[in-house]
């Protein structure tokens, strides 16, 4: 193994994080366990969980203890940089270094877990695999992705 490996914090400039309303509605709040989940922008100026095959627009990096916009959760969304994610269950074979990724079957809201990815063809928000953290890039392995 090499002495140098890519990590989340080897970024210059640091990742861009924006504050945002989170969730589909006030009745479906994000909680601290949802940090690390993949999200996409929705019509109410809010971020919602991705669906399988969606472009990943950001990764939730914080959930605050108060609400905005008539009850929506509030937190931070990382829009670029690097993030640790898990190879999802619909990935066929190993996810190669350099492969572009899209969302895989997401972990349910309120349940801790990494954002899940699979190889795909993102349309606007392109993330690629930079490093295998565990294993060889098959289902359940952790990988480091970066926004291109």
One letter per element, helices H and strands E, the order comes to EEEEEEEEEE
How would you classify the helix and strand content by structural class?
A: mainly beta
**DSSP summary, beta strand count:** 10
Number of domains: 1
Please give the count of helices. 0
Low-confidence stretches: none
- Overall pLDDT: 93
Large-scale geometry: globular
What CATH calls the topology is Virus Head Decoration Protein, Chain: A
Radius of gyration, CA atoms, in whole angstroms: 15 Å
Structural features, described:
The protein is mainly β and 148 residues long. The chain has one domain (17-147): Virus Head Decoration Protein, Chain: A (Beta Barrel), CATH 2.40.300. The protein is built from no helices and ten strands. The chain has strands at residues 17-22, 38-41, 46-49, 58-68, 72-78, 82-87, 100-103, 116-119, 127-132, 142-147. The strands form two sheets. A five-stranded mixed beta barrel has the order 1-3-2-4-5. Strand 2 (38-41) and strand 3 form a beta hairpin. The model has no long low-confidence stretch (mean pLDDT 93).
């Amino acid at each position: 193994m090499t002495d140098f490996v890519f990590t989340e914090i080897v970024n210059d400039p640091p990742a861009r994080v924006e504050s945002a309303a989170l969730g589909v509605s006030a009745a479906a709040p994000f909680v601290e366990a949802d940090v690390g989940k993949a999200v996409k922008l929705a019509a109410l100026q809010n971020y919602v969980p991705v669906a399988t095959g969606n472009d990943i627009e950001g990764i939730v990096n914080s959930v605050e203890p108060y609400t905005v916009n008539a009850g929506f959760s509030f937190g931070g969304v990382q829009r670029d940089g690097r993030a640790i994610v898990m190879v999802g269950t619909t990935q066929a074979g190993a996810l190669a270094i350099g492969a572009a990724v899209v969302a895989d079957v997401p972990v349910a809201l309120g349940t801790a877990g990494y954002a899940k990815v699979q190889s795909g063809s993102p349309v606007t928000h392109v993330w690629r695999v930079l490093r295998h953290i565990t294993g060889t890039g098959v289902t359940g392995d952790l990988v480091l992705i970066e926004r291109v």
